[in-house]
Write a structure and sequence with these properties.
By secondary structure, the chain is of the alpha/beta class. The chain has a single domain, classed as NAD(P)-binding Rossmann-like Domain (Rossmann fold). The chain has 8 helices and 7 strands. The termini are far apart.
Length: 266
């Protein structure tokens, strides 16, 4: 059974563009939102261009929505101020407006950079301490904690997907562990939509890769079984030069993100 209306934020971003044409099978109406211009509206789509930092605009954006897939915000590490507006103030506005509007559930695009300072030799589940690797990772950790608070205080359900590296193919050695195919991403979103109850769940978004850094056994009730694997790219990737073993990008799960910054204040 389809939902009446799904909201996709960040519809103009890389993964938003991937998911946008796939969502009509899950809802009668797909409301797409981004601060950047969105074109070529499909018959099932509604377009919204709200700034996540504007609470009144966000309240209008979530009105009449059953469920939200939240991809909106800054997707790279950088200076704090832009991240503050989109990823911290913006996620608060989204949760509070959604609570008031009676939205059923948010599927929150978190990130592997929430746990980026864990070593690549570690196998992590949802109980692993947050160890963000930059301003971006900190903002996603805030979003996860906020979603936990909204569940504990209000019973508002969320699935926080710690997305690995979702691209057409694995591009480097790190992505042999973190790669998430587009089809596996859609399948995970579909299970997050269909599950009768999700409570507050953290799930790692990675395909069936080896070596494996993340354990999703705690989220097995979702019924998600990734079908793809980065193994198909291994031979090509390993032709490239390896990183120096002493390079932090070769030690920590966050890869190059652990080396970004500091960013001088404006």
């Amino acid at each position: 059974m389809k939902l009446k209306r799904i909201l996709l934020t960040g519809a103009g971003g890389g993964l938003g563009k991937v998911l946008r044409p796939r969502l009509a099978k899950y809802a009668e109406i797909v409301r797409i939102s981004d601060v950047e211009p969105l074109e070529n509206k499909e018959s099932v789509e509604e377009i919204d261009q709200s700034d996540l930092g504007d609470f009144d605009a966000v309240a209008q954006m979530v009105a009449g929505v059953d469920m939200i897939i939240h991809l909106g915000g800054m997707s790279l590490d950088g200076p704090f101020e832009p991240i503050l507006n989109a990823n911290i103030r913006g996620v608060y506005n989204l949760y509070e407006a959604s609570r008031i509007a009676g939205v059923k559930r948010i599927i929150f695009a978190s990130s592997n950079h929430v746990i980026g300072f864990h070593k690549q030799s570690d196998l992590l589940d949802d109980s692993a301490p947050m160890r963000p690797d930059g301003n971006y990772g900190v903002s996603k950790a805030f979003g996860e904690l906020l979603s936990r608070f909204y569940f504990d205080r209000y019973g508002f359900e969320s699935v926080c997907i710690r997305i690995g590296s979702s691209f057409p193919k694995a591009l480097d050695r790190r992505m042999l562990s973190t790669w998430l195919s587009y089809d596996d991403l859609e399948a995970l979103i579909a299970r997050c939509i269909a599950a009768p109850k999700v409570g507050h769940t953290v799930v790692y978004g990675a395909s069936n890769n080896t070596p494996r850094w993340w354990d999703n056994s705690h989220a097995s009730f979702l019924g998600w079984q990734p079908a793809d694997s980065s193994d198909q790219f291994r031979e090509e990737v390993l032709k490239g030069p390896p990183l120096d073993p002493a390079d932090p990008a070769a030690i920590y799960q966050g890869g190059g993100f652990v080396k970004f910054g500091p960013y001088p204040p404006k």
